[in-house]
Write a structure and sequence with these properties.
The protein is α+β, with helices and mostly antiparallel strands. 36% of the residues lie in helices and 23% in strands. It has a 14-stranded mixed β-sheet with strand order 9-8-25-24-23-10-22-21-11-20-12-15-14-13, with helices on both faces. It is elongated and about 110 Å long.
């Protein structure tokens, strides 16, 4: 025991604790004390029992469930900040264990303390020489002395004890007794790069929270949003000072004028801009829209199947595991089949095989692998063997000198047959190709001189807000398999661009946020019609490798049980909004499971590796 403690004794320690209360209390005085009648345990799952005298309770020291309070433990010289989990009142008869003999009103028997149960969240410690100087925070670990004063802490003590970031995106305000307080909760770079999962039922406020993160102008960041319904596009037009929108554009949406810039302009005006959009880049079909707060630039986008084919298994999460595993072999076998057909033609130079295969994939369209009778036109050097028309294997030629027409569907079927694939795997491959073709976003925009095939380095690094509008893809295909390939291609583009900067000029890296609503559709649980390996490879790339590259992933879902478990494992901040009790418990919000079951929109429990568990009310964007 220190000399100070010996000289002053317990009364001196209590006086010093009261000095701490005067400094850090909103009221300047205690509102109650830790119970004298119960042993106070600090440990896993423990609660502190405290009491507020009836006189203080009646005078306004009302403590409510969900309120943040603090206790000063005099001997341990610790300030424990906690949240009130239960409040209890009892008549004097109940406290004495006396049954009521007759129903009669007796106000005098109501003069009993307010009992409260407190779950400790964190502790600070004060030095021997200066009680006004607190150190910490630490996890609750110090003994709590009986009769320790209880008080309502100031906002600065709460923020420091809970380790709340001082800067970052404001996501909400701390709730005190389920009322918003003056303490703002922010997500900083550490929070984001350890990744965030937002869970809640429809209407709980998930999308609003994501919009708030995108909108907040006080924190420098780059946002990339995968927008499945067009909500974020409309939000960009209405609320953001600037944004870039890439629109994977189905052929069906540009009926009669496939790929024309004028047709795309008409689509943008009709869906989002109410006639205010105009064409600014005819070569790529770029359109600029005058929003309420700034300009939003739109670009149509198409995917070239020949470019994606070698890596289709890495970008198609709704391929079966077997189909995804064998796709690289199928791709190579298609090339072998065609090379074999070409070599058997007389008088065709042997050195053209490589250039022929390259030209085949450059010219091949997805529909050529799906539709019987569709042919891929490939040009060879003029050869006597290719005059007058003929065919061999999967190759045909006619009157046009040097032109060879390839039966891509036939080559695909022969490749799968020669590999001895199971019928179910063959069907899954063909089904996925048909679905992708049905989206209409492959091999389109033919009339544009420079159609975009994805997110480019200039577009990503030159814009603070990027939205990938997947709504037309979903409308065209009505399947998750269709738009998920576009999504994975975009995510892959983002990672490659950021990785290039990371390796060449890391000092120029900024914080990049990837925001995805309905995340269970993009990163589903492993089932017979999904590839666990494909899904988890993308999750690992973004959430494990992305962290050091300053990539933060923010995911929202109403169906966490349908989400790949690796996502939950790697998301170190969990925001739990209105949910049923089972989901709340599985997501670590069991202490407020009953509250969350019927919570107002925006109310959430936040559990984070960056700061202590808190209850917040979300802030609206704008």
């Amino acid at each position: 025991m220190s000399a100070y403690r010996t000289d002053r004794g317990l009364q001196g320690a209590l006086d010093e604790a009261l000095q701490v209360v005067r400094i850090y209390s909103r009221d300047g005085t205690p509102i109650g004390r830790v119970s004298r009648s119960r042993q106070i345990v600090v440990g896993s799952g423990s609660v502190l029992e405290a009491e507020v005298s009836f006189e203080d309770y009646a005078a306004g020291a009302v403590v409510r469930r969900g309120q943040l309070v603090a206790v000063v433990s005099p001997v341990a010289r610790a300030v424990i900040v906690g949240i009130v989990e239960n409040v209890a009142r009892a008549d004097l008869l109940a406290l004495l264990g006396i049954g009521e003999v007759r129903a009669a009103e007796d106000p005098a028997s109501m003069v009993t303390p307010l009992a409260i149960s407190i779950r400790p969240l964190a502790e600070m410690r004060y030095a021997d020489d200066d009680p006004s100087r607190l150190e910490g925070p630490w996890p609750p670990s110090s003994p709590v002395d009986p009769q320790s004063p209880l008080f309502r802490p100031k906002a600065e003590l709460v923020a420091e004890a809970l380790n709340l970031p001082e800067d970052g995106v404001v996501v909400g305000r701390l709730l005190e007794g389920f009322k918003p307080s003056d303490v703002y909760v922010r997500f900083d770079e550490r929070t984001f790069t350890h990744h965030v999962i937002v869970v809640g039922t429809t209407g709980a406020g998930k999308t609003t929270l994501l919009k708030r993160i995108v909108w907040d102008p006080s924190y420098k960041k780059r946002s990339v949003v995968l927008d499945r319904q067009g909500d974020f596009v409309r939000f960009a037009v209405e609320q953001l000072p600037e944004a870039l929108v890439l629109v994977p554009t189905p052929r069906q949406a540009l009926t009669g004028r496939e790929g024309s810039s004028e047709a795309f302009l008409e689509v943008v005006n009709k869906r989002y801009c109410e006639g205010s959009a105009s064409l600014f880049d005819e070569m790529s079909g770029g359109v600029v829209c005058k929003g309420r707060r700034g300009k939003v630039h739109f670009y149509p986008m198409t995917l070239m199947f020949g470019e994606l084919a070698p890596r289709l298994h890495e970008l198609a999460p709704y391929m079966s595991e077997q189909a995804a595993d064998t796709w690289p072999e199928i791709y190579e076998e298609i090339e072998r089949v065609l090379a074999s057909d070409l070599r058997e033609l007389p008088k065709v130079q042997a050195d053209v095989t490589e250039s022929f295969i390259e030209a085949f994939w450059t010219s091949a369209r997805l529909r050529d692998f799906v539709s019987r009778g569709s042919k891929v036109k490939v040009r060879l050097k003029p050869s006597p063997a290719l005059r007058g028309g003929g065919h061999h294997g999967h190759l045909e030629w006619g009157a046009e000198e040097g032109a060879v027409y390839v039966d891509a569907r036939g080559a695909l079927e022969e490749a799968m047959k020669s590999l001895g694939l199971a019928d179910a795997t063959k069907r899954n491959v063909l089904r996925n190709l048909r679905i992708l073709e049905g989206t209409g976003v492959f091999d389109g925009l033919q009339s544009l001189e420079k159609p975009l095939g994805g997110l480019t380095e200039d577009l990503l690094l030159g814009n603070s807000n990027v939205v990938i509008d997947l709504s037309m893809v979903l409308e065209a295909s009505h399947t998750l398999a269709g738009f998920s390939v576009v999504a994975y291609k975009t995510l892959d583009d983002v990672f490659k661009i950021i990785d290039k900067v990371y390796k060449s000029a890391p000092q120029q890296l900024g914080l990049t946020l990837i925001l995805i609503d309905e995340a269970h559709e993009f990163f589903p649980q492993a089932r017979s019609e999904t590839s666990k390996e494909t899904v988890e490879a993308m999750v690992n790339k973004l959430m494990r490798l992305g962290r050091v590259r300053r990539i933060g992933v923010v995911l929202a879902t109403h169906a966490p049980d349908d989400l790949n478990p690796l996502v939950l494992q790697l998301a170190n901040t969990r925001v739990v909004m209105r949910s049923d009790s089972g989901v709340a418990r599985r997501m670590g919000a069991e202490n407020f499971a009953d509250v969350l079951a019927g919570a107002l929109s925006g109310l959430a429990v936040v559990n984070s590796v960056a700061f202590r568990s808190v209850l917040i009310m979300g802030e609206l964007p704008g």
